[in-house]
């Protein structure tokens, strides 16, 4: 296998996961709306496919490095991060090689497993990790028998199939639902698509059902120049004069525009990007060497124009003017206001069903003018993506593992902008453990979960990470939660109502809690969050 072959393997794997995305989503047992496994894995690996399509005749090292770098930045959700780490470990093994045989491929699969396990604090059996680990071990055995790469891959797939089937027995939740692990299934799909590509049978993702709408020739009379999102086509070549990693330039320019193509060798870096800030792009390029050529074209006015204003030359990575800063993930303008009023520097829009990528978090971190930036993920499925940011930026990044928005708000209340890093870590971590989070959402699918017969559209009440109850009447769940809070002796209750709840109904909910919990201080705030009708914190 050479670089072109690896490129085809990854594009084929991305196509297969895209095709089966909904199937993987439906394997998710928990019925709440979420950033589902299939969606997250598809978005992650398609980031690699997109970058690989832009490379011209890459060697093996470059192809694998391009894929790993793109997936690291595009990783979404825990399943996406683990998938990116599997590929990252493979790229580490393939570094310095122009060809890959069965033995080296087996080593690459194993290195991917090692990288993934190192990143997971408490690896659980019956997950994608289990499937990947057993498949890699079998690949190494097969390589000793036959060094043909297809033979090794076939052996890995056969073992992955066995391991995937056994996940239903290793995870009690999967066993009760009678389904296999979605992440493990996704990795098996990737391995199978890779083998097909090795055999010249690449998997191709369908282009959609609107083929009849495709015209033989574009009609530009309908085109409005105002529809151009990024107005300047910016191209430049810089000579390589230092050891700065061009992948950092790629990551930076990705935040600045679209249609990015970056090609580098030992002597030059060539860049093409559409952006509204060509001056910033050029300023960043100077960090890698002197310009050989520069061309900027205004795509709206159709003539060449140099744009080098001082404002455009402002650095994308903010210079530190203070020791500590904070960014927080949340969805809803009301919640964003709460965090900003508490001193958060940057808001990353996202949460359930909208897991931000590592690149999204990196971009927000880089904009904070602080030496150390704390990150509040506020969702268990975003924590791993946030943890990948530290090595991608010159800033120090500290992730406080908040799993809910109320945990993040409580942690922020304990943040001391003048304090030491470790003092803040301890104070914020301790504080977030004092709050109980209740949430009411809806069932995204039919499910028999934890003794509940759940139907699509039912109201679901969560207490912490556990399902508290389900009903067709939201008032039944709110009353039950209020009684739970009262019985637990909570003193401070804050109710954040979502975008689908009118204020008058939210006030009735606050009145209900005040009546059932007469000794508690009840506050009502508009959160404006999607998906969750109510988020309630109790301390």
In terms of topology, how is this protein built?
Blueprint (H helix, E strand, L loop, with lengths): L2 H17 L1 H6 L10 H18 L5 H15 L2 H18 L7 H18 L8 H18 L3 H22 L1 H6 L4 H17 L33 E8 L6 H9 L2 E8 L3 E8 L2 H8 L5 E8 L4 E2 L17 E9 L2 H9 L4 E4 L8 H9 L3 E7 L6 H5 L8 E4 L5 H9 L7 H12 L3 E7 L4 E3 L2 E3 L4 E5 L2 E6 L2 H14 L4 E6 L5 H14 L4 E6 L7 E5 L1
Parallel strand pairs: 6-7, 6-8, 8-9, 15-16
Antiparallel strand pairs: 1-3, 1-4, 2-3, 4-5, 10-13, 10-17, 11-12, 13-14, 15-17
Helix pairs in contact: 1-3, 1-4, 1-10, 3-4, 3-5, 4-5, 5-6, 6-7, 6-8, 7-8, 7-10, 8-10, 16-17, 18-19
How would you sum up this structure, described in words?
There is one protein chain. The chain has 539 residues and is an alpha+beta fold. The chain is built from 19 helices and 17 strands. It has helices spanning 3-19, 21-26, 37-54, 60-74, 77-94, 102-119, 128-145, 149-170, 172-177, 182-198, 246-254, 278-285, 333-341, 358-366, 383-387, 405-413, 421-432, 474-487, 503-516, and strands at 232-239, 257-264, 268-275, 291-298, 303-304, 322-330, 346-349, 370-376, 396-399, 436-442, 447-449, 452-454, 459-463, 466-471, 492-497, 521-526, 534-538. A 6-stranded mixed beta sheet has the order 14-13-10-17-15-16. Strands 2-3-1-4-5 form a 5-stranded antiparallel beta sheet, with helices on one face. It has a 4-stranded parallel beta sheet with strand order 7-6-8-9, with helices on both faces.
């Amino acid at each position: 296998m050479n670089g072109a072959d690896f490129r085809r393997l990854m594009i084929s794997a991305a196509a297969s996961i895209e095709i089966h995305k909904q199937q993987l989503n439906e394997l998710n047992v928990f019925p709440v709306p979420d950033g589902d496994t299939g969606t997250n894995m598809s978005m992650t690996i398609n980031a690699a496919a997109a970058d690989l399509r832009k490379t011209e005749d890459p060697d093996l090292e470059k192809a694998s490095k391009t894929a790993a770098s793109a997936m690291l930045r595009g990783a979404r959700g825990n399943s996406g991060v683990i998938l990116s780490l599997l590929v990252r470990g493979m790229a580490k093994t393939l570094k310095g090689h122009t060809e890959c045989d069965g033995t080296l491929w087996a080593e690459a699969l194993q290195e991917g497993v090692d990288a993934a396990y190192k990143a997971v604090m408490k690896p659980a059996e019956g997950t994608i990790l289990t499937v990947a680990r057993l498949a890699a071990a079998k690949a190494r055995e097969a390589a000793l028998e036959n060094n043909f790469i297809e033979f090794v891959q076939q052996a890995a797939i056969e073992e992955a199939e066995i391991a995937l089937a056994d996940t239903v027995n290793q995870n009690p939740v999967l066993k009760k639902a009678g389904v296999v692990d979605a992440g493990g299934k996704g990795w098996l799909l990737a391995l199978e698509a890779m083998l097909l590509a090795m055999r010249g049978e690449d998997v191709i993702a369908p282009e959609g059902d609107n083929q009849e709408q495709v015209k033989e020739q574009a009609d530009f009379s309908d085109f409005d120049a105002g529809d151009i999102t990024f107005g300047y086509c910016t191209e430049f070549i810089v000579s390589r004069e230092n050891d700065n990693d061009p992948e950092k330039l790629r990551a930076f320019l990705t935040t600045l525009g679209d249609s990015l193509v970056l090609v580098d060798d030992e002597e030059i870096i060539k860049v093409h990007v559409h952006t509204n800030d060509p001056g910033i792009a050029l300023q960043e390029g100077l960090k890698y060497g002197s310009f050989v050529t520069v061309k900027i074209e205004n795509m709206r006015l159709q003539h060449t124009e140099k744009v080098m204003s001082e404002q455009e030359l402002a650095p994308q990575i903010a210079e530190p003017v203070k020791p500590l800063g904070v960014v927080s993930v949340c969805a809803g303008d009301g919640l964003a206001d709460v965090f900003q009023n508490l001193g958060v520097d940057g808001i990353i829009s996202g949460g359930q069903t909208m897991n931000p990528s590592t690149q999204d978090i990196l971009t927000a971190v880089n904009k904070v003018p602080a030496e150390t930036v704390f990150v509040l993920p506020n969702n268990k499925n975003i924590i791993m993506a946030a943890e990948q940011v530290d090595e991608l930026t010159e800033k120090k990044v500290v992730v406080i593992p908040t799993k809910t928005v109320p945990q993040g708000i409580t942690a922020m209340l304990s943040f001391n902008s003048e304090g030491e890093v470790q003092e803040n870590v301890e104070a914020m971590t301790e504080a977030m453990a004092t709050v109980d989070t209740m949430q009411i959402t809806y069932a995204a699918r039919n499910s028999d979960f934890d003794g509940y017969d759940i139907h699509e559209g039912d109201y679901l009440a969560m207490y912490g990470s556990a399902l508290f109850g389900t009903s067709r009447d939201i008032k039944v769940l709110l009353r039950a939660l209020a009684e739970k809070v009262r019985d637990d002796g909570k003193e401070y209750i804050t109710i954040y109502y979502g975008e689908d709840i009118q204020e008058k109904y939210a006030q009735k909910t606050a009145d209900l809690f005040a009546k059932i919990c007469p000794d508690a201080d009840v506050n009502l705030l508009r959160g404006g969050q999607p998906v969750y009708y109510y988020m309630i914190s109790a301390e």
